[in-house]
Amino acid sequence: MRNDDLLRNWYPILQENMIEGKSVAIGIFSFEENILYANNAMNHFLNVDSENQKPVNAFVNPEFDVFVNKEEQGLVFDGSLTIGNRFDVSYSLESKVYRLGGEILVFAEANLLQLFAENKKMSTLNQQVNNLQRELIKEKRNLQYTLSELKDTQQMLVQSEKMNAMGQLVAGVAHEINNPIGFVYSNLFSWKGIGEDLVNAYLDLEQLIKNQENEKLFGEAKKIREENDLDYQIEDMADVFEESKTGLDRVKKIVEDLRTFSRLDESAMKKINLTENLQSTISIAKTKFNEKAANFNFECPDELYVECYPGQLNQAILNVLINATQAIDYAGRIEMSLIEFEEEVQISIKDDGCGIAENNKEKIFDPFYTTKPIGTGTGLGLSITHKIICEVHQGKIEVESEPNKGAKFIISIPKVISL
After folding, report:
1. pLDDT tens digits, one per residue of 220-242
2. Which residues belong to any copy of the Histidine kinase domain (predicted)?
């Protein structure tokens, strides 16, 4: 069977599907460009208003007048026809235009191969847009994280500057106190010598009068001795001296602890006796211990040497001690220990205070997080401690706690920091 005969048999069905199809646009127009007939596809491309049957779009390239002005009958155009609104809508269709009498027949169809190619390009562009969107979201998150880090760092720097200024003030005060203490300490021993000399001189004079066997004069001397309670004064003089010496020794120790704690001359990494360092920090915290009448105990070896940043490490430990003091009730207990391992040392600080809720454990080291009343805490103490221990000293902090059963902070730092 010939193809013509085969198609003739199917012609009615093919005609129906072609007219109703969405890829083939068929339209019949008057010379005034009025629509005499248009199938669904042509109505779609012309964007025909369903109410008044007026097209929104028009023939753009070539324009409809080109077809009207042709004198010949039959096929007047064969090529790419653009239909659109000259602004944001444009359809390019493979078309054939016929002129029959006073009517124009437009037969247009989408170039499927071109559409597939354009669709492929569009898919590629969409994928690229999606990739760019993901990159933008990632960059946005990175910028948000960086901004958050910058804000945290800014607050840390402010706090660090405050601590640095405080350290300078402490070191200055310690230096200024140290000089007059030296004078007083020296004069105390001079006063002791002078007092002993005066007592001995009086006793020698009294013995001399007694040897002269002048009862009246000896009685007067005895009366002066009794009226001024010289026997008690002589005995008390040694006690006054020892108490004064003990007090000055304690002041000297506090000043030395202040100087050790501030360690402005040791801002760089240095090998130190950690036991001595921690004892100076404890001495600074004793004022807070006394406010709570805290029972404090520190177990440590006599000497334990590590490489660290002394000033920063002192600040980190002090922050934990202050937190422990604030957590305990009056006359509560704080236990601290220093243990040496093969490659690291462990500082443990345990209290019997209010403890930490499970849902707060992961947040206690976040900057500005605090459970204290407004105005009583900045939320930076433990955050600074975490940075000093984990980042500066390459160590770690573990927290063990249950509500109302106290808390235990276990701080581990290497004996030698790898640079």
Report:
1. 777 777 777 777 777 777 777 77
2. 172-417
Token digits of residue 118: 């354009």
Task: Write out 219-239 in H/E/C secondary structure.
Answer: HHHHHHHHHCCHHHHHHHHHH
Residues 195 and 280 in one domain: no
- CA pseudo-torsion sign 276, 281, 282, 284: positive
Note whether 395 and 344 are within 8 A (CB): yes
What's the mean pLDDT when you consider all of the chain?
79
- When pLDDT is cut at 50, 70 and 90, the band that residue 199 belongs to is confident
- Give yes or no: residues 327 and 255 share one domain: no
Please report, for the domain that includes residue 294, its CATH number.
Answer: 3.30.565.10
Asked if residue 344 lies in contact with residue 416, where contact means CB atoms within 8 angstroms, the answer is: no
- CATH code assigned at 96: 3.30.450.20
DSSP state of 412: E
pLDDT tens profile 332-365 = 999 999 999 989 999 999 999 888 887 777 777 7
121 within a domain of the structure (yes/no)? no
